[in-house]
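Margin note: ligand = iron/sulfur cluster.
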Amino acid sequence: MKFVDEYRDAEGARALAEGIRRAVTRPWTIMEVCGGQTHAIMKFGIDQMLPGEIRVIHGPGCPVCVTPQEYIDSAIDLACRRKVMLCSFGDMLRVPGSAGSLLQAPSRGADVRTVYSPLDAVEIAALNPAREVVFFAVGFETTAPVTALAVTQARARGLNNFSLLVAHVTVPGALRALLGMPGNTVQGILAAGHVCTVMGWHEYVSLADGFRVPIVVTGFEPVDLLEGILRTVRQLEAGRHVVENQYSRAVREFGNESARRLIDSVYRVADCSWRGLGIIPQGGLRLRPEWCDYDAEVRFGRCENGLEPESECRAGDVLRGLIRPDQCPAFGTRCHPENPLGAPMVSSEGACAAYWKYGRRSDLGSPAS
Amino acid sequence: MCLGIPGLLVEVDPPTEFATGLVEFAGVRRRVSLACVPEAVPGDYVLIHAGLALSRIDEEEAGRVFEMIRALDPGALDEVR
Ligand code: SF4
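Resulting structure:
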């Protein structure tokens, strides 16, 4: 319990951990689906405070990690075209495509810019009328509203040189796919608090019901995570499976309705491929037909990049919660942050990066600083 | 990318088609979209996702979220700059 001592509410955290110990009578597997939560669990040693019966696994909660390689290849391909300026969130830059990352693309003649917001990319388009500005729209429901707003603004301002390469993914679609996979071991779910500030928790009701899994919307402080786990365990022990909202400080049932309207006005829910998981029915968002002139894949043509190459990276198994990062044979040996083999080690939100950073390296001695 | 960064709304810009305002976060001031929090007024704390304010929170929650982001991913705060 040495990590949680650094935390301001260590007493509260310990009391919750004690509550979990008292509540649990059988083994349970609980999945969290948020890169921020993964990192908080590792940093504060939440996993080590839990009784042995509770196994916490990390789902596909890192948006950068689940963006399929074919989209990174498409982004690089677009960025190499004359006139195109490819704008992206900084997180995406280091993720490997089949032939390098966006960060390495400028050496092949690509024009790649990091922006904090897609709204900044719209400004870049306004300032550079002779260029084609493409924003690489990745992320969950937390970034979809702002990319939707960006095209809305571009159209309202009459900017014809702005478009989106859309690779948005949605959490409920992925959870439905994971829970329905043969061999699924997940019995309870912590839903990501900040994603739910946008979408609310009403979408999870049918999932909890249909798959008979408790779902608890949870914040990402140690006390939040422990309380989310406690509430999940209590439901599991009582044979209940409803949606609870632990993070009511920020999350309401229907989330932010103007943000949801923005998403709906620009995007439709579509079958989409996730890295390592294949095509997930209703697993993402793509532009509606009335926005097709802002679709980079329509404007510049779809880039076909073929299949994902053979690699020893087990990102798919990590993202599905089938193995922990430290169970990947390459973890910490052939794969580490200086030489990442896959997206979950590259991304600051990735589960493999979290295990490395916080010293969950069973075979490698004690944690680094 | 999924965690909103908390900021203090210091100024709401005069109304245009797209509502904007000036937010102070992580020691810098930045113009963000208020399109999804039309009810926000100066003095409110908001959670901002890539330039768009998506929820109003109270001051205590803003402080807690800020501290957690600083502990987990300080790089996320630099990207704002
Ligand atoms: S440790 Fe490296 S190789 Fe293994 S799954 Fe994670 S990113 Fe892939």
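The radius of gyration of chain A is 21 Å.
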